[in-house]
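re: that chain from earlier
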Amino acid sequence: MNTTESQRRVPAIRVLWLAAVAGVTAILVACGGGGGDGAATVTPASTGTTFSAPISGFGSVILNGVRIDDSAATVTLDDDNANGKDADLKLGMVIEVEGERDNGAKTGKASSIAGRSFVQGPISAINVAGNQLTVLGVVVTVTPGTVFDGANVSGLGSLALNGTVEIHGIPNATGSTLKATRVERIPATSEVRLTGTVQGAAAGTFTLNGITVQDPSVSLVNLPNGVTNGMLVRVKGTLTNPTTIVASKVRQVRLTPVLTEGRRLELEGVVTKLTSATDFEVNGVKVSVPATAATQGTPVLGARVEVEGTVVNGTLVASKVEVKNEAQEQDDAHELHGPIASLDKTQQTFTLRNGTIVVKWDSNTVFDNGSLPRRADDLVLGLKVQVKGKVTGNVVLATRIELDK
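^ sequence. v structure.
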């Protein structure tokens, strides 16, 4: 190395050395070290959080806009399948997630995911004009945001009496009515599942929503003293006639997660008891809304709400309350990430999540014009995209499509 070259490099080396020293100093200060009074503290990267809500998107699992990494999570579905996979999760399923939420960001990480349909069985009544159907005594209301799935199913009008459906949703306090978040037609089966409040309990029998449950040799779960009136239970069994189930399993359940003192909770449900806009219950969970909370809308009895906050003395002290407008689905209610699995430019559709979710675009869809795709012609198989949109029957109508970063 000649002298001139060496002289040119010295300032650069000195700059790198100073930058390194500055970085170390910053770390020491952030940790309260390196002298001083030690008052500086490190903000925790994440907070332990329980989530309970319908799935609103994928690319990990998305609940109410929070993107939750589920790559290391155990997945348990319908109580029996303890070896579930991410691929088993579907739009509109109501799930409970234990994990963490990143502070100051809409991301998190799941350690466990559990979900169960609320009712599975044959349709006994359909009222298309009234947006309702009845399954095993449960009156189910569909909304513009209800996800429909199954062969040749595009909405309530494509279902038929006696067809078998599996339904996820948000129930009232007793389980007699349900706001559907997902309705899927499945192949005909005599196996049914029903959640509800026990009535008429006697030796070997009880009723749920007017359906007689017989349990002569049933397996009881979380029921050391048997089944008694007022309990909320989930029944799995065989439908022997339109109003009788012979149970193979009866499990005591909750409509909401177990409350853990001091833990963050993000809960979506319906208002089951109302004292005031600052004092109400969501599926039996007491909610207190301080003046510092961010609120959107006014809670009323039966309204669907999203509440975020911390559990204090058995009460969810809210930091955020949002009353959902079920009459109109938000344009960006659903968010999807992933590679395009199939593409039909004639029908203006493509699929994501290995072909299980259909996305449709139209003249109102905005394409990102800062990078590909700038227009529909730029869509190709395998392109990783981010989609925001709303459910319309069994498709997601895209309001925005852009490159997934």
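Residues 1-43 have pLDDT under 50 and may be disordered.
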